[in-house]
Automatic annotation (TrEMBL), chain A:
Domain 7TM-DISM receptor extracellular: 43-162, 199-412
Lineage of the organism: Bacteria, Pseudomonadati, Bacteroidota, Chitinophagia, Chitinophagales
Descriptive protein name: 7TMR-DISM extracellular 2
Any one annotated GO CC term: membrane
UniProt xrefs under InterPro entries: 7TMR_DISM_rcpt_extracell_dom1, 7TMR_DISM_rcpt_extracell_dom2, Bact_2-comp_sensor_kinase, HATPase_C_sf, Sig_transdc_His_kin_internal
Sequence ranges assigned to domain Signal transduction histidine kinase internal region in this UniProt record: 483-561
Signal peptide stretch: 1-19
From TrEMBL, chain B:
SUPFAM superfamilies, per the entry: CheY-like (SSF52172)
Organism of provenance: Chitinophaga rupis
Name by which UniProt lists this protein: Two component transcriptional regulator, LytTR family
SMART domains listed in its UniProt record: REC
Record-listed 4-aspartylphosphate modification sites: 55
Taxonomic lineage: Bacteria, Pseudomonadati, Bacteroidota, Chitinophagia, Chitinophagales
Amino acid sequence: MKRIAYLFLFICYSAGIHAQPPTEDTLSIDMGAPPASADLRPYIYSLDMPGRSFSLSQINQQTFTHQPELFHPQPRYNKQPHNCWLKFTIRNTGLKDSSLTFFTGWHDFMYWYAGTHNHYQLLSQTGLMLDRGNVNRWERYAFPVVVPAGQSRTFLLHIINRSYNESALMPVLYDGLGYERFRNHQINTFRAEAVVIQVLLGMLLVFLTIAIINYIQLPDRSYLYFAAYILGLIMFFALRLESKPYQLSVFHRWPMLKYYWNIPALLFCFYLMYLMFGNAFLNLKERYPYMERIFTIAAACTGGVIIIFFYCIAQQLYHVPGIIYSYLYLGLLLPQLIVFVALAKRSRHHPLVRFFLLGSICYYLASLLGFIFQIKPLGFFNALGMFSAPNMPMIAGVFLQAMFFLAGLSYRNKLVHHERTKTQEMLIKQLNKNKELQRKLNEQLEELVKEQTSEILRKKQELEEQRQIQLNIEYDKKLTEIELKAIRAQINPHFIFNCLNSIQLFVMQRDYEYAQKYLSDFSYLIRKTLDFSRRNFITLTDEITYLNTYLGLEKMRFENKMEYDIRVDPAIATTELEIPAMLLQPYVENAVKYGMTNPNQPIGRLIIRFQQLAGDILECIVEDNGIGITRSKELRTLPKHHQSSGMEISSNRAELLNKMYNTDIHIEVIDKFARNFTESGTIVRILIPQL
Amino acid sequence: MIKAIIIDDERNSRDIISLMLGKYCPQVQIADTASDCADGISKIKQHQPQLVFLDLEMPDGTGFDVLQGTQDEASFEAVFVTAFEKKFLHAIRFSEVEIILKPIDKESLLQAVQTVSQRINSQASKNRYRVLLDNFNHGKQANWNLLLPLANSQETTIRTTAIEYLESGMEGCSFYLEDGTVLQVERSFRHYADLFIPLRFYQVNNTQMVQLSHINRVMNDSQHILLNSGAQLEITERRKKDLLSFYR
């Protein structure tokens, strides 16, 4: 708006009409050679009664008066809708019909009439809110003044400004060249401004893109609010993207949008979205819950106010939003300051607050600066009315604010990133630490396991050794025990004492020869028994001699009631062949003991046979003609616990020998009766593999 | 004269017994001999002897079988003659039946014959043989019965488990039973000390021997043991430790 003012000043200066000319009814101009421009203020009569509007038919009854205060070279705040009629009369003093151009500024509704007294004809109508005629409509704000040569003509201009903000209202009459110059100048000025706005729009679009991209990358509400804020600004400035003044080049099809968005945009951008953005951006919910409540309430109120604005605009009360906005702005300065201070106090712990505050302060200061700049030329109230109109400081402020906010967002991203990196680093560190710990633990465990394994192995080995030793000891013990038992069994005490008894008898009977033989045989047997019991193997010859002696003694005891026969296979080398010592003796003894008990056989017959079998096996057979092992067992009336175990010892011994020498001595006890022999008796078959 | 029979499966044995009896014990008259159980039983039934010399192990049975077989039809004193029969020795000793070991020596033969003669003369009860057979047929030594020759020339039979403790006396020894009875026994303390070795007896001091199952507690603070009956016996420190080790 300022530029218009400056323009007018320039025009006034250049035309040299800054001094008020004397008032005249009719302007007489030689339209063939007119001045470049002429100030029509002294020649214009106007009808301007506040609060009243007149139709074309009514104005004839009204008196037009001279009201120079009506005009203003700069935008003015009227405090009410402006509805006025201008009237002037021109007389062409020249010689030819000519046309000049009349220009009073850009207004909402303009109706151009021409005619003579009491008879006017509507020539054209135009206006910001009226003309839908694209870019060309800008040309229509200048009305052609056509007056035939030598004639006078009266023109009427009806101007309606619903908005309280009125653009410059300055009636100037241009000739063709002057108007062209004026028009070019205007266009150049507007173009310069359009470039600024275009650049701003471009930047805002970049911001918007960044915000949206960021939001997609990192879905954070503050980006969304920022994007909305930027979008609002883009809309706001796009409305002002005019290559020519007041033509609403983009939104001319719906000029009301200018009203609908002008002030609400400011509220939307600088209050609603600003608050919501601040709320989300500073994360007040967590960091400053009280402030968050204030912000939320304020945002809600702003939303309400915006709706009220829309309602007012719809009701054609265009001025109300402007007024409310200006008062809101001024009225909120102090509370905002308090909020800023409160926020600033937190800035040390919350670096984002700085960005927010700097951005906010930039805008508000710039806005205030713009306002103050306007006070000077416009006066306080006019300036107040023009609050919502963008000016350079405000644009700069807006731009700075957007920059700061974006920087803040970036900084926040950086913080987030930083934090994430830090967390990641920490995690990695922790992970490494854990890994290290795990490794250490594993190592320790492994060591422990190794230790314990070796310990276990050692213990096991020890145990094994001990077991081996124990086993050996036990083995030895068992062996010794069995050997001892064998001795006992083999030198049956019963037999010994009976022998001694017999010897005693012979002595008493004075049968000394018999006694001596008995005694020598007996001592041989005892000596051999003692000898053999210490040896594991004896030759077959020894065994045969031993058995012979033993059986001889037994025969003597039993008074020839028994016979015995030892048969040796001549193929056997008896002096070389070795057999386990004392293996046969228990079986022979048993055969003697139980072989004598057969009532059907008056003489017990005992046969011992040694035979060589195939595969180097020595077969020893002890055969008697007693009642047989089965019956003799039945006959034994002794309770179980009294039974002797001589034969068991022998079989145990065979097992032991088998183990010790890895041989396969086999002992088989056969009852003749059970095997369907013709006579009863027992056969013991012992197989001794030769070593 | 004492009418006797010799039962032995070996002729040499029979010969030497009769020889020695003829030489040293003329009062014993050998009525007959037998070489196995069955023959022995029939000879006993036939002759009704006062004394029988019995071999323990014979081809068709043992001396106990002979006793068993003649229990109802004959009444005689028996003297066992055996070469080596450790396993039967305890049962015989518990019942106070005479036993002579081969080769027979003069003194033990004389001693045995004298003892038996006294019994025959005094017509002593034949309880000992029942006790012997019972013990022999009964497995567990701990449950055996014990025939005690009392100081008053009487005799009594007790369960071994009933003995609480025995005590050495001037002559013979005293048996303290769980029911409180005290028996004065002719035989020496040492005799029973040996006899009870396989059983659960413990000699707590020089003169007393206690059956372990009758001990109530071993006093911690004094040199005493308390029996179930309430009697307190002295025990030496060394033996106390030894005794306690039984219970671990």
